[in-house]
Structures are given as structure tokens and as C-alpha cells.
Design brief:
mainly beta, elongated, 90 residues, TonB C-terminal domain-containing protein
Amino acid sequence: PLVAKPYPAVVNVGQMSIEPGYANFLLEVQPDGRVSRIVAESFGPSADTPSALKPLIAGIAFEPFKGSKPQIARVPVVYGYAQSGPAIKK
């Protein structure tokens, strides 16, 4: 199994302007642990969401593993969704 190197669970986006959204990314990981490709698998609410969220995972790296073929890791990213309000309003 792939083992990710330590990476902050919360990433400071600084002055970036990112709308709320989500994306599930597939990362192609080489045997040396580096990520060679990042592809959005599913996302919302718009087609621009993956390109906005991709920088948040750009620094992810993995521990080296045995073998000569790359492996795939799935990384979910959610940004800016507030906790939902009550289901019933009075």
C-alpha cells in the first residue's frame, strides 16, 4: 500500500480566491514516491473546480515502494463548504 509522507491536513491558500467546491483526484505515484500525474476523477460544482483545487495537493509525496510500476492514489479535496443548517426551519 502507498504511504503518504507527512502533509498538512489544512493548507493555507493565502490570497488565492477559491470558490467552495470538491474534487476527487487520482495521483499516479512512481516507485521513488514522487507524483507524476494528477487527474480529476469527479468534481463540482463547475468545470473550473479541479484547476482551482489542484494547487492544494501539489506538494503531496509518498514513501518509496518496491516494484517498477506506478501505483494510483485517490485524494479527496473539499474546500469552503460551511456546515449545513437545520433541516427544518420554524
